[in-house]
Prior knowledge:
Elements: E1 4-7, H1 17-20, E2 21-34, H2 47-57, E3 61-63, E4 69-73, H3 80-100, E5 104-106, H4 125-134, H5 136-139, E6 145-152, H6 155-165, H7 169-176, E7 181-182, E8 185-186, H8 192-197, E9 203-204, H9 212-224, E10 235-236, E11 238-240, E12 246-253, H10 258-280, E13 283-285, H11 290-303, E14 308-311, E15 316-319, H12 320-338, H13 341-353, H14 356-369, H15 374-389
Parallel strand pairs: 9-10
Antiparallel strand pairs: 1-13, 2-4, 2-5, 2-6, 3-4, 6-12, 7-8, 11-12, 14-15
Amino acid sequence: xxxxxxxxxxxTYGGTFMDDFWPTLGVEEEYLVVDPHTRAASACPPEEFFxxxxxxxxxxxxxxxxxxxxxxxxxxCQNVSDARESLTNMRGTINRIAEKFDLxxxxxxxxxxxxxxxxxxxxxxxxxxxDQDLKGAxxxxxxxxxxxxxxxxxxxxxxxxxxxxxxxxxxxxxxxTSSPFWEGDIMGMKSYRLAVFDGMxxxxxxxxxxxxxEYERLVGVLTGAGVIEDASKIWWDIRPSVxxxxxxxxxxxxxxxxxxxxxxxxxxxxxxxMLVDLKQRNIKWRNYPALxxxxxxxxxxxxxxxxxxxxxxxxxxxxxxxxxxELIGFLMQHAQALGCEKELLHTRTIAERGSSADRQLEVYxxxxxxxxxxxxxxxxxxxHLIDETMYGI
Length: 393
């Protein structure tokens, strides 16, 4: 694992860095709505379904670009326990409502066999404009992700932590992978979602920014030229939130089990606290070029927790399990301070057991080995995902 380096000039920021680290959380999850009879994503769920979800959860639930998707966002959470309570309630509520409409909820970043060509966009001016602007790039977005916000009040500190946090994005991706299938085929990647999403503009690993001012100037060039309305159309794997004083991680796949989502949330919050704590002591995690971090992102996308990642300080690939153990060692004191030791330690379980992508492939391999047809095996993967989405809830 990378060693710490680079000393901050004293007095770069006024006050105490921990005062600017507002350790609150917000989590967004995107789900697919599935027909339990065909197991396909439901192209046109009844409008009453979304209305009923909205009546039950208010502004915490919103539609997505495709009608077969639904998104939830927690209120501001003080800790991971709050996030657990909120997400448990929202998954359970939407699933109960879905069952009333003879539908099911499925948490995964891609559907095992449904084609994007069969799906219809949500009827709203915002989505119509996106369709006109992005055409085929957005029409393929039959994908779901997990976004995590951590509060950082000082905008300059937010950019500085973003620069350093880029290093850890492949680690979060590996733990979350849940998209090994696309339109009925095994794609040879644990996160095919990113292969689809990278067809959109302004995605991937951002370059390091010297300051919030530099970031705002970059955004200003794009908005001034009229190619985007605001920074919400910048879809990097990590970005300063447009609406909130938070740093938003967007790299993770949609975790099938809630416990896996909470492990990603805990990891991200602990990493943020660690980096802020280092800054208090005039120490900084080294910033690497986006090219190198993107290579680790690709390796994580390809192999997930079963593979390796490059340790840039050693100049060689290290098994993910070993890197994750080092991370746990670095972060445990911060997990104890934040009250999320259990959730952080669950990353070890994921590394040993495998992510959702690994379990989906295991189900498919087991069923086909028993002589089940490809189409039927894919349906059983969907059944597995529906069950796993409500595991422990």
